[in-house]
Each structure stands twice: as C-alpha cells, then as structure tokens.
Amino acid sequence: MTLEQFNEIAKSIAAEANVLGSHHNYFLLHSTRLYKTHKWFDTFNRKFGKTLEIGPLYSYSPFILKNNVESYEILEGDEPGVYPLLKIYPKYNIPVNIIDLGLVFGNPLNSERKLPYKDEQFDTIICWETIEHFNFNPVPFIRELYRISKPGASILLTVPNRASADSLYNLITGRGQIEHIEEFFKYANYEIETHHTCFAFHWHEYTMREFKHLLTKCDFMIKKSGYLMGFQDKHQLSFLRRLFRWCLKVGSIIAPSLGNHICVECIKQ
After folding, report:
1. In the predicted model, is pLDDT for residue 246 greater than 90?
2. DSSP for 228-241?
3. What pLDDT, in 10s, does the model give residues 216-231?
4. Residue 92 is part of a domain; what is its CATH number?
C-alpha cells in the first residue's frame, strides 16, 4: 500500500463519518508518521487473527487493516471526539467498547482494574501513541494486555521517545516547558466539568530502556524494537524550522536512538 492509497482510504472513511473538515485534520497532521509505523510493523502484509486495537482515534487503522484480520475489536476512551466514528464501525462489523481507562486503572477505589475481555482472547493487540497519555500507573494496564492475549500473541506498541533529539533540544533550550505546565492549568477542572479522565496531553514519555523493562517485567518477550523519526505534516514552515527538521533527520540516520518514536513488538510467552 502506498502513502497515497493510505490517505485515500482515510479520506473515504472521514467522509462517511462527516469529519473531513474537523477531526480528520488530526489524521492529516500525522498521516506520514502513521504510515511509517504501519511499514515498520509490516501490518499491510501480515495476517493478525483476532485483533484488538486500543485508542485508534483518527488513525483509521481498523478500516485499513480489516481485510488482514479474523476479527477486529476496538477499545476507545469515552471522549466526545471519537463519537462520529461510532456510527461507522457497525457497518464494518467492528465491535467497540467505550470505557474510561482512568476510572478503571486510576481510581484508588476500584480494586478490579480489568479490561472488559476474556483471558487469552486475542492473537494481536495494537496500541499506538496511547500509553503516554495515561495519568495512572501503567503496570496494571500492561498486565491486562498479558491476560487477554493468547500464548504467542503479538503486541504492537509505540510511544514517544523521551530521549529523542527533539526532546533533548527542548530540555537544553527550555522550548515547550512552560507550555506543558500551562496545559495543567488549562485542564485542571476537566474531570469535574466533563466527568471524563483527561488524556489531552502526554503525562509520561519513555526511553527505550524504560519501555522494554516495563514490558519484560510483565512477562512479555521483546521480538523487535526500534525508532522512527517523524514530524507533523505542516506545510508552512519557516526556513529555520525546515533546517532544524533536516538536522534531526540526519541525526536520526547517524544515531537511530535519537528518533522521536519508539516501536516495540513483544510476544506473550
């Protein structure tokens, strides 16, 4: 599948959901990186059996991969932004569970901390660019992935790289640091006003060493791991910004660990 075909499928689904002028803009900003992620995991050429995707939002992966699976289910957060897609999923026989992961895993009064699936139910679990949004301890969530996956199942995960060239530059120069704290103020009353957990920004990003340790400590075996360098698809960039991106790309070729996203495929032993 080419990038153009990838974008055309996404555009057709966005038209069905009537989000071309709104939520589809999220996909347009990230489509190149999402395509690179599919290529890294070779998803277009694999068969996945019974598949669960957690937090697909407007990546459109369930529609793009529907012919590569035995069945496809989605676990999505209770976020109004995803509601336009809910009317589309039944047409493609894609069951959806809507739950607030913050209430399941972040509520100290909840002793269950379980995903709504049976033991050893899935052959494949996809969870891309989601775990960094958790404002709770991720260990019970990862343990649940282990519980609901079959022996030999593949878990395909991505998170932002906390040790990327971009992150190191921000640490040294202070770029974006005040803005990150400002987001705390912006969403300080979000849960009270909406009765939803706030997943609007990154609560915790990971280094490769951290992320692999999190997974292996939960008994997963790492099959392969690596880095991606990708940027938002913004077309109006200053010369200095374009030069900066070029330097980051060259740096990530010389030292792949400077890439801004971590990709890991792990296996349930």
Report:
1. no
2. E------S---HHH
3. 999 999 999 999 998 7
4. 3.40.50.150
